[in-house]
Structure formats: structure tokens, C-alpha cells
Design brief:
Distance between the termini: 124 Å
Radius of gyration: 51 Å
Largest sheet: 4 strands, antiparallel
CATH class of the domain at 55-184: Alpha Beta
Number of helices: 4
CATH topology of the domain at 55-184: Gyrase A, domain 2
CATH superfamily of the domain at 55-184: General secretion pathway protein M, EpsM
Strand content: 15-25%
Length: 198
């Protein structure tokens, strides 16, 4: 006798296939979710690491900026101190300038030339006096030209004395002090810098 299966096997097979399909679909979705979650965690970790590195670099840059500012301040103070030291050295060297000028005038003025007036205005000297002869004044001009402290001698005039009993002639001469310009020119340039440094 033939065996006849009366159970709805096609429906059962279809439900089984549907169940397998849903299982595979759920497993694929779960695997995709886990994969996306892991990828997301990996990139978030990298982003956090990069943010930490950026924060560290920003802090280090701030520290370096502060140090650069301190270095610039120290450089400004150093320049100010150097200018002050230079000014003090120049003032020390020019402290005896008046004595040096008098000593140099004594060397420049030859015998037979007598000074009656001596004025100093800034870096210029005015000499007024009497001379026994023009040759002695010429010698005085040559001595002034060869001097290291004096320069640019200019004889303004020579005139015969009004008193006929004496043979002396009156003269007026201008000179420049070379050391005075160097000292006071630098001192004036250094003064505004010192004021700005304060």
C-alpha cells in the first residue's frame, strides 16, 4: 500500500526557509552593527588622541610664547643696560675734557701769542688775544690742525694794535673740539632710549 503524506510539508519548508532567512538577516545586521561600532570606537579613539596632542601642543606653544616674551623683555633690558654702560663710559672719558682742552690750548699757543679771552660754546672754542707777529699765528694754526683734540682752526681777523707804542696785533680765532662731538652726540642719542626703557 502506498504511503501518502498528508502533512503540509511545503508550508513547513517555507516557514523553515523563512526562519533561516530571518536568522541570517539578524546575524548579518548584528555583525554589521558590531563592525560599525568597532570602527566608530577606533576613529573616536584616534580623534581623542589627536585632540589630546593638539591640546598638548597648544599648551607648549603658550609656554614658548611666554618664554619668547621674557626673552624679548630681557633683550630690551640688556640693550638699555648696554646703552647706559656706554653712556657712563663716555661720560667717564669726557670728565676730564675741560682739563684736556686747557692742556691742549697751552701746547698749541706758541710763545709770543697771548690770550685775553677764551670762550667755549658747545663744541666750538673762541680765542681772542694778541700776537707779536703773524708767523706766530701761522705756527698756532698749524699746531691746531695737527692736534688730536682740536680741529678746523679759523682765523677770523688780525688787526694792528691801536697803541702805537706796542707791536702787538689783535686776533680772533675759532676752533672745534673733536672729542666733544663724539661724547655729547652719543649721549643725546642714548638718553631717549633710556627713557623709553623705563
Amino acid at each position: 500500500m502506498a504511503y501518502i503524506n498528508l502533512l503540509p510539508w511545503r508550508e513547513a519548508a517555507r516557514k523553515e526557509r523563512q526562519k533561516q532567512y530571518l536568522t541570517i538577516l539578524a546575524a548579518t545586521a548584528l555583525f554589521s552593527f558590531l563592525l560599525m561600532f568597532l570602527i566608530n570606537m577606533f576613529y573616536n579613539a584616534r580623534i581623542d588622541g589627536q585632540l589630546q596632542r593638539n591640546s598638548y601642543l597648544s599648551n607648549e606653544i603658550k609656554v614658548l610664547d611666554q618664554r619668547i616674551t621674557e626673552i624679548r623683555t630681557l633683550n630690551d633690558k640688556k640693550k638699555s643696560l648696554q646703552q647706559r654702560m656706554s653712556l657712563i663710559e663716555q661720560l667717564q672719558s669726557s670728565r676730564n675734557l675741560g682739563t684736556q682742552i686747557m692742556d691742549e690750548i697751552a701746547h698749541v699757543v706758541p710763545a709770543g701769542v697771548y690770550l685775553t679771552q677764551f670762550e667755549k660754546k658747545g663744541s666750538s672754542l673762541l680765542l681772542v688775544g694778541k700776537s707779536e707777529s703773524n708767523n706766530r699765528l701761522s705756527n698756532m694754526l698749524r699746531e691746531a690742525e695737527s692736534s688730536e683734540l682740536l680741529a678746523d682752526p679759523l682765523l677770523e681777523f688780525i688787526e694792528a694794535g691801536k697803541d702805537s707804542s706796542t707791536l702787538l696785533s689783535n686776533f680772533k680765532m675759532h676752533l672745534l673740539v673733536t672729542g666733544f662731538e663724539a661724547v655729547h652726540g652719543t649721549a643725546e642719542a642714548a638718553t631717549p632710549a633710556n627713557r623709553g626703557a623705563k
